[in-house]
Automatic annotation (TrEMBL):
<dbReference type="GO" id="GO:0016491">
    <property type="term" value="F:oxidoreductase activity"/>
</dbReference>
<dbReference type="GO" id="GO:0046872">
    <property type="term" value="F:metal ion binding"/>
</dbReference>
<feature type="domain" description="Flavodoxin-like">
    <location>
        <begin position="252"/>
        <end position="391"/>
    </location>
</feature>
<dbReference type="InterPro" id="IPR036866">
    <property type="entry name" value="RibonucZ/Hydroxyglut_hydro"/>
</dbReference>
<protein>
    <submittedName>
        <fullName>Flavorubredoxin</fullName>
    </submittedName>
</protein>
<dbReference type="Pfam" id="PF00258">
    <property type="entry name" value="Flavodoxin_1"/>
</dbReference>
<dbReference type="GO" id="GO:0010181">
    <property type="term" value="F:FMN binding"/>
</dbReference>
<dbReference type="GO" id="GO:0009055">
    <property type="term" value="F:electron transfer activity"/>
</dbReference>
<dbReference type="InterPro" id="IPR016440">
    <property type="entry name" value="Rubredoxin-O_OxRdtase"/>
</dbReference>
<dbReference type="InterPro" id="IPR045761">
    <property type="entry name" value="ODP_dom"/>
</dbReference>
<comment type="similarity">
    <text>In the N-terminal section; belongs to the zinc metallo-hydrolase group 3 family.</text>
</comment>
<dbReference type="InterPro" id="IPR008254">
    <property type="entry name" value="Flavodoxin/NO_synth"/>
</dbReference>
<dbReference type="Pfam" id="PF19583">
    <property type="entry name" value="ODP"/>
</dbReference>
<dbReference type="InterPro" id="IPR001279">
    <property type="entry name" value="Metallo-B-lactamas"/>
</dbReference>
<dbReference type="InterPro" id="IPR029039">
    <property type="entry name" value="Flavoprotein-like_sf"/>
</dbReference>
Amino acid sequence: MYKPVKLTPDVYYVGVNDRRTHLFENMWPIDRGVAYNSYVIDDEKVALIDSVEIAQVEKYLKKIKAVIGERPIDYLVVNHMEPDHGGSIDIIKKMYPDIQIVGNKKTLPMLEGYFGISDNTVEVKEGDSLNLGKHTLQFYMVPMVHWPETMVTYETSEQIVFSADAFGTFGTLDGGIFDDEFDFEYYRDEMRRYYSNIVGKYGSPVQKALSKLAGLDIKMIASTHGPIWKNHIQKVIGMYDRWSKFETEEGVVLAYASMYGNTEEMAEAVARELAENGIKHIRLYDVSKTHASYILSDIFKYKGVILASPTYCNELHPNMESLTTKLRHMGVKNHYLGILGSYSWAGAAVKKLNAIAEELKWEVVGESVEEKHALKADKYQECINLGKAMADKLKADR
């Protein structure tokens, strides 16, 4: 038996928590779990807004029944087809055979492709409305935030934006569902990690989506992951605005690969010089230990980046190669970069990291440092020089 959670007198939260899955999209660690959010509008016509991941469907259906009992669902609004939200569509369709599935012209082919569903569909376009009785839904297309079919649904009387994955975050909802029921800071870093790894590549589409939302009066943002935003609406919109413009704070992420400690020693020398020169936000990561999603999240936060790698079979160390591939894939912009490398007989890491900087259009700061064998006094001094050059560059932006 479930006690229904009300957003407003007729709008209900029927989402579920997943604390068992280790990797979101089989890639990103979710030590805090993740919530899959769905909503019911109980009006003359009943509308279900998005569904949940298939493994959670039994609990999900019980929550829906707790709200509407044996009433049929008239509409299922699909804001986003990704299987962590669309996974239960087929079962919902079988349980409510007369349900009409609402989506846009890019949603409907996906419905057929994933589930073979082509009947009882309603195609909506930009600005179209759907009347449920007391409540009216309006639809706005936000393609590539972060799939091409993504849209948001706006309930006009309660002024709720059902925002699909936008403004979502990793982390289960542990009792508190609304943002005035918990400490906002608990979710801040996980929201950035979610954005940077899931949505981060699509800064321009996010900016376009924010422009559309700017024309709406919004009292609540109900995403498909994480809390329902009421008190922090302008704060989370502002975060998305900054991240999608690749705006950063003063600080440095030092990400290194090191097989026997020599490259790590170079990175630590740079880190110490940064601290001595007044840079307080320094994040030092071993790419072979820390998952790239955490490193990427901090790169989205801080302006300065130091990448350090030994040469491995005439290439970058494989774990550094993996990180730089993600950076290129995400198209991360507007950073300062310092470069460190080491080798035993033939050096290639520094050359390859400089090529990556050129591809990303990042500004290389100072002189790249490359050491043969163990770190020696002259190269140690060059590491110090690089740390000071990065600190000076960041402080010049204050």
